[in-house]
Amino acid sequence: MAALSELLPVEAVRLDVPAADWREAIREVGGLLVATGVTTDTYTAEMIRNVEENGPYIVIAPGFAFAHARPSPAVLKTGLSWVRLAQPVEFGHEANDPVTLVVGLAAQDSAAHTAAMASLAKLLGDPDTARALQEAPDPAALHAVLAGQGTASSAGQGEGQAEQARPQVRRGPAVHKILTVCGNGVGTSLFLKNTLEQVLDRWGWSRYVTVEATDTISAKGKASEAVVILTSREIARTLGDLGVPVRVIEDFTSGSEVDRALRETYDV
């Protein structure tokens, strides 16, 4: 699987870009995807339509939007783009507006960029690294941080260890599966999956709990297999009552918030 630095070349990074609104911000990341041979112009329209149809669930952390759409013929290869805005813009998210960072993702399938999503989740979940990315003076400096040349701290990694012999669910099926859900199943759900798996690793529960990233349509069919669903507020509204707990996560980079959601689900 491709690394983050491979999917996001320096040429796909622009800093301090002016944008009048969220649509123009997405057009900026879409333009970089086109310029680097990742997509056609059609994909930019698909990313905008995704927000129009599903709401601003792509704003997965304070100030951070993860623009993407489903795999389609408009995606020529898997890749990323990165735009830091000169002035923040509103996407309409209840908790995480305004947005200053927009990352664009184009994926040919749900597997090619998994490693990159894990790396990005760890970087943005670390306060020191996130600050280094925000303060990078030019694309080359930012790319160096993304390539792992920045430092990482242990901050923001949850609320401490909670290792148990076995998880005990308050309700739900016996199989310990957690679903992370987004509109398309290839972007924000993978991001949340990676943060959740980091928390499960710290708890020592990775061998007891599996995590599956999926889309809203598939989630409705798979809900009976899960003990809990983690997702955004917008997607939770779309899912409705599926017969299992649905926990809203506002900040997909926050180990602490995911930790609390797990504690609400399990007898910890």
UniProtKB/TrEMBL annotation:
CDD domains reported in the protein's UniProt record: PTS_IIB_ascorbate (cd05563)
Region: Disordered, residue numbers: 148-171
UniProt domain PTS EIIA type-2: residue ranges: 6-149
Transmembrane region(s): none
A Pfam family matched in the record: PTS_EIIA_2
Every PTS EIIB type-2 domain range: 176-268
Keyword Lipid biosynthesis attributed: no
UniProt biased composition (Low complexity): 148-165
Compartments in which it is found: Cytoplasm
Source domain of life: Bacteria
Transferase keyword on record: yes
Keywords: Cytoplasm, Kinase, Phosphoprotein, Phosphotransferase system, Sugar transport, Transferase, Transport
Protein task: The phosphoenolpyruvate-dependent sugar phosphotransferase system (sugar PTS), a major carbohydrate active transport system, catalyzes the phosphorylation of incoming sugar substrates concomitantly with their translocation across the cell membrane. The enzyme II UlaABC PTS system is involved in ascorbate transport.
Protein name (database record): Ascorbate-specific PTS system EIIA component
Species whose genome carries this gene: Streptomyces celluloflavus
